[in-house]
Amino acid sequence: MAYDKFTTLKSSAVPLPIENVDTDQIIPARFLKATERKGFGDNLFRDWRYNQDNSPKEDFALNNPKYSGKILVGGKNFGSGSSREHAAWAVYDYGFRCVVSSFFADIFRGNCLNIGVLPVQVSTEFLQKIFAAIEADPNTEFEVSLPEQKVTILTSGASESFDINDYKKGNMTNGFDDIDYLLNIKDGIQDFAKTRPF
Amino acid sequence: MSAKKTLFDKVWDSHVVHQIKNGPDVLFIDRHMVHEVTSPVAFLGLKNRGIGVMHPEKTFATADHNTPTINQHLPVADPLSANQLKMLEENANEYDISYWGLGHEKNGIVHVVGPEYGITLPGATIVCGDSHTSTHGAFGAIAFGIGTSEVEMVLATQCIMQPKPKSMRINITGDLQFGVTPKDVALFIISQLTTSGATGYFVEYAGDVFKNMTMEGRMTVCNLSIEMGARGGMIAPDETTFHYIKGREFTPKEAAWNTAMDYWQTLYTDEGAEFHKELTFDGSQIEPMITYGTNPGMGMGISNDIPLVEAAQGGAATYKKSLQYMQFDEGDAMIGKPIDFVFLGSCTNGRIEDFRAFASIVKGKQKAANVTAWLVPGSHKVESAIKEEGILDILTEAGFELREPGCSACLAMNDDKVPPGKLAVSTSNRNFEGRQGPGSRTLLASPLVAAAAAVTGKVTDPRELMEKEVVAG
Predict the structure, then answer these.
(1) Cβ-based contacts of B37 with chain A (< 8 Å)
(2) S-S: A111 plus which of A88, B253, B399, B465, CB 3.0-4.6 Å?
């Protein structure tokens, strides 16, 4: 099932300079009851974004009108905790196409790659530069180039490269997913299955 | 890496269907477990693609995450939960997948029932759309949590695509102190490594502490592997493992058992095999543990004081935010803090040993008046054992009630929510903000610590309430 292709993204960014942002914050468990993949963006960071009476928390980045864009920038160990893909869906559904952090939790990173949100891991130093650039000017634009595997702060020209394996890079660039690939080698899988003892 | 292999290498390599250059491995999956929350969109994906389930006999479905823990015989009141449960049943029926729904005698938490019925086997690859799938590593399986896209992959092709993680071995030597349980061992390790210290790794637990541990204890430890970022954790199968699995419903029988045993007995790390990282701790130094913050790495010996901000790992701002949420101050003692709720249960500590441990403390005492206690068995099988072993009588005499099986207050998807601001001692696995209900505050601990808090109404060192001859679970 194809998803959005990702090549180069130019956008301002929303800063979340908090470490260990877990998937229960990204989307609390009580909002996991849907049976279709839609509407999760409304509850992205629900309990950080809204008070218990559903009024917005003014000091939270997503409620601050000066921040906008398709890039979310988080502190170290972003996406820890639960395997819920709903967290990646919520990030996507809200409108983000890229998450930048100095470190990602494994499952969250994999989930993002599987739905077409690009996780970009940068050094701690470069992450601080990004936060500083946004603090100096919330309209600062960034360029995330998947072909070049490079993220650039456009106001200063500072840039850093990031890793992604060739296979996933190809999938993201073309909007392919893993099931398409696996179905293509279905006969080989069936032969392998016959060799399993249990 | 040398030709000498780790346990992890042996199991992983034997499941690789296909390797992609500069990409992931295509890994064959022996056992797939599904529950109501992370599967509906995967089944919808199959329908949209017009494809079926490749090996329905390798997938097992149970309802656990949002099921009520009282009055399970009545219709589920919350329409959204009821709809998810109905979808799971319909999907299981449509694709010919075995389904242990609400009310079924085998129903329970997916990571409790898998081992109970012999679905979980050594040397298998096991996945589920739930991060605590790492539990099954206790049997020498490679088991880990996956996202919904991957659930769909496994349904469609019985494979997932994953880069092979790095390997780490954690050795715990020596003997555990009196009153120290597998939960304390796990919380200790996580406190040493932090919540991201094992990210990118698959962990093998080794050393005397794990050799001497029961299967229930090993499951508790492996369950919490994800809380230090590891994909999973595993322990080499031994006589304890084989004794546990023999004769269970889905365990191989007769000739198939002998064939399987020949394979299982090769599942250990070769002498001299190399790990990307190896750590060793002295088990005798571990105390009963408790957490004080908003991630499982923020734990310490129960008699310690909350670390000062300047001593905290990670950023000071994040640490302060965490303590502010918990309404604690740096330097506070945990002992003596009044608590409101106690939760015994979850895939971490919802097994029979956990109820035995809890009962060993509360026996002959009374539940503190200020405490609401939720005691939730991990499965109907655990529930039956609680009754048969006379534990229910002990609990009832001490003023406790037993609820029906499910994930319950671990993630509070059902009505078992800790109210805003209330403090809970919980045997579950996550103390994230709001995890047990919006605004709830969680202290993770062992069943012994939970029991001590339940009868004293405050954080209490369980060793003060224990007789020396009591064997802790």
Answers:
(1) 32-33, 84
(2) A88
Chain A closest-CA separation from residue B354 CA (Å): 23
B448 is written with which tokens? 């012994």
CATH 3.30.499.10 fits B7-277, yes or no: yes
CA-to-CA distance for B102 and B109, rounded, in angstroms? 11
**pLDDT at position B314:** 73
What is the spatial distance between Cα B425 and Cα B422, in angstroms, rounded to a whole number?
10
pLDDT at B164: 97
Residue B158 has, within 13 A of its CA and on its CB side, a CA count of 27
Query: A residues 76-105 near B, CB within 8 Å?
Result: 76-77, 80-86, 88, 103-105
Partner-chain residue, chosen from B158, B200, B321, that has the shortest CB–CB distance to A18: B321
Size of interface A-B (CB pairs under 8 A): 206
- Give ipTM to 2 decimals: 0.96
> Considering CB atoms only, which of A33, A36, A166 is closest to B81?
A33
Nearest to B413 among A29, A104, A192 (CB): A29
The answer to whether residue B467 scores a pLDDT higher than 90 is: no
Mutate to test the interface with A, among B55, B199, B408 (most CBs of A within 10 A): B199
Residue A2 pLDDT class (50, 70, 90 cuts): low
Whether residues B314 and A19 touch (CB distance < 8 A) is answered with: yes
Contact A36 B83 (CB under 8 A): no
List, for residues B375-427, the tens digit of each pLDDT value. 999 999 999 999 999 999 999 999 999 999 999 999 999 999 999 999 999 99
Distance, in angstroms, between A15 CA and closest chain B CA? 14
- Counting Cα atoms < 13 Å in the Cβ hemisphere of B93 gives 7
Q: Which of A20, A38, A115 is the best residue to mutate to test the B interface, defined by the most B CB atoms within 10 Å of its own CB?
A: A20
- From the list B150, B229, B260, which residue is nearest A114 (CB)? B150
Nearest residue, CB atoms, A182 vs list B37, B121, B157: B157
Domains for chain A: give ranges and CATH numbers: 8-194 (3.20.19.10)
User: What are the boundaries of each domain within chain B?
Assistant: 7-277, 289-465
Computed over every residue of chain A, the mean pLDDT equals 96
Q: What pLDDT, on a 0 to 100 scale, did the predictor assign at position A105?
A: 97
Residues of B in contact with A179 (CB under 8 A): 45, 49, 149, 152-153, 156-157
pLDDT tens for residues B219-234? 999 999 999 999 999 9
Q: What is the pLDDT of residues B89-142, one digit of tens each?
A: 999 999 999 999 999 999 999 999 999 999 999 999 999 999 999 999 999 999
Structure confidence at residue B315 (pLDDT): 85
The yes-or-no answer to whether B7-277 and B289-465 have a common fold is yes
CATH number (1.10.150.20, 2.40.50.100, 3.30.499.10, 3.40.50.10490) of B289-465 reads: 3.30.499.10
What average pLDDT does this structure show over B186-203? Answer: 97
Backbone angles phi, psi at B203, to 5 degrees: -100, 135
Q: Which long-range contacts (CB under 8 A, 24 or more apart) does B42-46 make?
A: B42/B129, B42/B148, B42/B149, B42/B151, B42/B152, B42/B155, B43/B87, B43/B91, B43/B95, B43/B152, B43/B155, B44/A35, B44/A36, B44/A37, B45/A1, B45/A179, B45/B149, B45/B152, B46/B95, B46/B152, B46/B155, B46/B156
CB contact under 8 A, A197 and B54: no
A35 and B40: CB-CB below 8 Å?
Answer: yes
Query: Which residue in the block uniquely carries the two structure tokens 């957490």?
Result: B291
Position B69 pLDDT exceeds 70: yes
Over residues A172-178, mean pLDDT: 93
* Among B199, B218, B160, B205, residue whose Cα is nearest residue B31: B160
Average pLDDT over residues A58-68: 97
